[in-house]
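so the lab meeting is tmrw and i was supposed to have these ready like two days ago... anyway. pasting both below. for each one the top line is the aa sequence and the line under it is the structure tokens. i havent really looked at them closely yet so no promises
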Amino acid sequence: MTRTVFVVILILSMMLGTPLSNALDGEWEITPASEKAADRGLEWLAKNQGSDGNWGCNDLGLVAMGALAFMSAGHLPDRGRYGTNVRRALDFILINAKPSGLLNVSGGRRDMYNHGLAVFVVSQAYGMTNDRRVGKVLDKGIRLILDVQCDDGGWAYEAIQKTRGHDLSLAVMQAKAIRAAMDMGLEIPPERVEMALKFIRDRYKPYGEADGYRYGNDPLSDRPGCFTYNGSNASTAMASAGAVCLQEFGKYSDFRIQRSMNRVMEDINERMTTKLSQGQIPFDAYAMTYVCQSLYQAGGKYWKEGYPKIREAIVKMQSAEAGSETHGSWGANGRVGGREGQLYGTAVSVFALTIPNRYLPILQKGEAKSTSVAKRIKQ
């Protein structure tokens, strides 16, 4: 589906009051309970946002996630029930963009975490609105990502170009922003994309020792394994993050995707029992973002078997204490605490529950566009 056709369908569906998801896939993806949970989450986000639009938070990445939750549910700036809320969140991000294009007003160690996530969300907003003010911030934000890409294809925490990038998490955030910008028509040098993908692939690690008898002669493809944080420290978050990134760049046949998705499914099945019995969502907010995207992008058995389990766990763990300040929200499950943790956890949970809507441009599956025909946003 092209972006132009997608935007037309989105606007028509909002005018007619018809969910886009109804026309795209099976009814099993969204249940009455998950729809109500998403609605309660949106109500909490709207009620607690504040006039500044930032939920009292100066991490632009977390503010961007708040905006993404609304957009994933089909609300555009100044359109729909929560149009004002989307506009406030985006305005907070746009007015805090630095002259360099950096989207971070926290400490330097938060530079590229906040920047990559915020640029990704800004790209989704531009794809859904064609707002030139949003486009200018997106253009400068992508240029900064390219300017500070390290020699090995990764990125450092600070917005500084170095010899070596730090970890997979940082690289995936920037690569996803680049991929989304390519969808919006920005020109990206192909060699920069290949550098980033090489860095990401190099963080894949097979399990155990090479064994020609059990796994064949290929030291990688025939052995179980998954993406890791930095060449070690395998986790569900990194397995799903790496898989999402390769799929968004159209590398569907890369063996690393299936190997990593097998790890994700194993962890989903294991955590459904242990975490739920402890009264917790199976994954923290950070991991949940990538887990749900990876299931969707992989499709097939991963989506049909894995997503309903995650969806039901999210619905079950929503705060349902009527009249309380937390009613309708979720926590971030330890990664981020306090009110910021509620913002993060609630935004991610709403996003996860509304992925089946397919409102966001990044959820329109397809091969990455050729950069040879991409054009820079008009100023």
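ok protien two:
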Amino acid sequence: MEELSTLNVEGISTILEQSHWIVQIFIVSLFALTIDLLQRRTLNKLIVRAEKNTKNLWDEAILRAMRRPISLIIWITSIAFSAKIAQSASPAMIFEAIDPLRDVGVISSITWFLIRISKEGQRAYIDGRKQKDQMIDESMVDSINRLIRSSIIITSSLVMLQTLGYSISGVLAFGGLSGMVVGFAAKDLLANLFGGLMIHLDRPFSLGDWIRSPDQNIEGTVEQIGWRLTKVRTFDKRPLYIPNATFSNISVENPQRMSHRRIKETIGIRYDDASKMDQIIIKVKGMLRTHPEIDNSQTLIVNFNHFSPSSLDFFIYTFTKTTNWVRFHEIKQDVLLKIVEIIEAEGAEIAFPTSTLHLKGAENFEH
């Protein structure tokens, strides 16, 4: 019996010695779970506080961005540490990849955090501008953010390759050669991509702007600015898709950014009313100077300037305060109707094309 008891004790001791690494892995996993729960609770409380502070939206963006990547780093570290414990108990070839895989996992977590903070930062920036009632071109912000995310992904990929033992110089050389081949094969695509970049940098127009080109049949409202195409909705509601490279070779007019709108009209009165021209011009000029929708700080001209075949012409040249297209035509209509009233009040008439036939000896003609 004593020998049997001794054997049992020795067997249990042997089992415990052989399986102590399992207990260690369990403790490491339990510790990682505890740390993860604590950081989640802490960040959730901080996010709730940050949401109440509407003045600074960046705190909330950073906290939201780091929550999941931190959990990933905790569990990657825990798994790597557990694998080290298992390696000490049972050496195997697979455990030789622990260190590089752990480094790749950490780099991936940092990359994920940077991508998330770029997205959250974009949202915080747009919301902050809207809270202050400031204009914001969301398509431009989104395009810049995409460029930043692409740079983050490319950089992290190169760092991962270096971590795994690959030569970055070779990869860059191969990438340069591949880039030349792709560049020749897709020069039109690259031209459109660079055209889109120039649109976002130069900003000749923004979303919602009314644009037109005197060089091509392009006129409408900008609905979307992509990296390859710009979508314009014409006034008959048809979508017009324009390659971005086109804007590098044409001139674009942006009426949306006009400071004023111009009224330029020529009005003719009869030759029989030549003596009334001076008073008509004085009164029309006075009417424009007192009109509440006419900007007197801009050029204002009313002058008799042309002997036409059937009329004496004077012209008006002035600017409205509004740039709204519909409101401008309402003001222009009001100005023209007032000019008609002035002409009629002076006993004159607006001329229309007429011809006068003089017959020689008509005075001796008897009916």
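from a quick look at the 2nd one: The two ends are 163 Å apart (CA to CA). The CA atoms of residues 17 and 76 lie 27 Å apart. will dig more after coffe
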